[in-house]
Amino acid sequence: MGTGYRVRIVSSNPAQTSQASLPFRFEGPSLALTPGLAGAPVCQGQVVTVSFSLPTGGCAFPNDNTFTAQLSNATGGFGNPVSLGAVQSGAGNSLTIPASTPAGTGYRIRLVSSSPALASANSAAFRINACASRVSAEEATLTVAPNPVSGGEIRCRVAGVDSPRFALFTTGGRGLPLRSSTGDVPGAFVLRPVQSLPTGLYVLEATEGTTRLTQKMLVVE
Q1: Is residue 147 within a helix (H) or strand (E), and if so which, with residue range?
Q2: Which of 51, 93, 105, 215 qualifies as a cystine partner to 36, CB 3.0-4.6 A?
Q3: Residue at which a domain ends, from 129, 156, 190
Q4: Are residues 146 and 79 in the same domain?
C-alpha cells in the first residue's frame, strides 16, 4: 500500500520504455473502526455482545480472511490477548468471557483480521465482575445492623452483588446525600449521611445493574 505508484510500458523488440503514468494510490482493506459493546458489566463466564461494520467504500477483505475478537488484560493492554472467537461484520456477536478471567474494571475488546493482519481500535473499557460464587439476583440481600441506627452512621451488609451503589430516602421518596466506605469484612459497608438524620423511618437502597435491594431502617436518638 502507498501513494506513489506508477505504471510504464516496456517492449522487448526493439527494447523501449514508455514514460511513467501519473502517480496513483494503492489501498488495501481497512479495520479503522471501534467495535460496539453491549451487555457489560459482565460476570466471569457470561456473555457480552460485540458488533462492528466495516468502513464503507473500502477495499474488500479476501474470502479466506477471518475476523477474531480479542480480550485485553484488566488494564486494557493487549500484550497477551485472549481470543474470544470468530466474529462477523454487521451482526451482534455473542462472546463468552472465560470463567478464569480475573475481575477488573479496565477490560477492552478489539478485532483482528487474518488476511491481511490488521487490528481495530479498542472498545470502551468495561468491568468484569468476580461472580463465580455469586448468588442469584433473587437471593441477593441487604441487611442493616444494628437497626435502629443513629443519625450519623449506618452499618450494613450486602450479599449477591459485587459493587453496590447506595442511596437513602425518606418514606416520602426524598433522596438524602450519603457517603459510603467498605467495612472490615467482605460485603460490609459503613454509610454516613452528609447531615445527621432526624429521628424517623428511612429507606436504604443498594443497586447494581438490574438488581435493586431495599431495607427500611429506624433512626433513633
Answers
A1: none
A2: 51
A3: 129
A4: no
